[in-house]
């Protein structure tokens, strides 16, 4: 940890407004994540099988639209958060932060365009499935659900949406270890990275590790909470 006089020279004094924006965005992101928990608990997880999923999404459409909206919104909040982190750490290790920002940008792109687009497609198809009046209509909708359903089941998707953003946090924590963030933020960032690597591979690992994505998500929320507080302090300097 470097002293306060060194910190003043390391951080970008012209970026204080961005630190405040990043701090607020991180706080809202954590709140958004927490708001999804009771909704997830009320709807449960979708079953296997295309037709079963259509029936499920038709029944739990409201809950999943709320989840989809919150998650897309929180994905977008990562942009100002990591821009603020880049501004605060670029004079310590610009290359690490560029890699971290790239990881988070890849995550945002894939999560928004694949994960939640697939969910919204299944929600729309599920609504039509519930309203269909013939076996031919239902069979057509079940066939159409095959592609988005397969995308959600892909092990590669778990790597993109869990491992890649966790790696971005891990790289950010490496940059933090030489500068202006607390040791607890650094160590928690490393833990997020380690758990994300294993959680990202959980779909091809034994079922006993199936809870790791949830543990990783909780660790990520804790890390963003610490980041929010530290960016707030930097914005006050």
β-strand percent reads under 5%
- Describe the global form: elongated
Q: Level of helix content? A: over 70%
Number of E-type strands: 0
Note the gap between the termini.
17 Å
Helix-strand string = HHHHHHHHH
Rg over CA atoms, rounded to whole Å, is: 20 Å
Average pLDDT, rounded to a whole number, is 88
Tally of domains: 1
Structural class: mainly alpha
* Individual helix count: 9
Question: What can be said about the biggest beta sheet?
Answer: none
Model regions low in confidence, pLDDT < 50 over at least 5 residues: 1-9
Task: Provide a descriptive summary of the structure in words.
By secondary structure, the chain is mainly alpha-helical. It has one domain (4-235). Helix content is 84%, strand content 0%. The protein contains 9 helices and no strands. The chain has helices at residues 4-10, 16-43, 50-59, 61-131, 135-144, 146-153, 155-176, 183-200, 212-235. Helix 7 packs antiparallel against helix 8 (183-200) and helix 8 runs antiparallel to helix 9 (212-235). The radius of gyration is 20 Å and the shape is elongated. The two termini are 17 Å apart. The model is unreliable at 1-9 (pLDDT under 50).
């Amino acid at each position: 940890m470097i002293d306060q006089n060194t910190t003043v020279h390391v951080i970008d004094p012209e970026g204080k407004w961005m630190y405040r924006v990043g701090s607020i965005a991180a706080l809202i992101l954590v709140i958004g994540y927490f708001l999804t928990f009771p909704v997830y608990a009320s709807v449960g997880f979708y079953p296997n099988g295309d037709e079963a999923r259509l029936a499920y999404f038709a029944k739990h459409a409201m809950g999943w639209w709320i989840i989809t909206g919150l998650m897309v919104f929180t994905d977008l909040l990562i942009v100002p958060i990591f821009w603020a982190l880049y501004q605060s750490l670029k004079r310590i290790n610009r290359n690490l932060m560029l890699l971290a920002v790239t990881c988070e940008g890849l995550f945002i792109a894939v999560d928004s365009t694949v994960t939640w687009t697939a969910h919204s497609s299944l929600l729309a198809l599920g609504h039509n499935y519930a309203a269909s009046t013939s076996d031919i209509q239902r069979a057509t909708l079940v066939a159409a659900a095959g592609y988005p359903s397969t995308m959600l089941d892909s092990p590669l998707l778990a790597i993109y949406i869990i491992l890649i953003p966790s790696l971005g946090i891990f790289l950010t924590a490496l940059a933090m270890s030489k500068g202006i963030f607390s040791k607890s933020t650094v160590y928690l960032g490393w833990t997020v990275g380690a758990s994300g690597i294993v959680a990202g591979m959980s779909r091809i690992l034994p079922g006993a590790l199936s809870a790791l994505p949830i543990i990783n998500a909780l660790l990520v929320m804790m890390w963003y909470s610490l980041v929010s507080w530290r960016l707030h302090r930097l914005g006050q300097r």
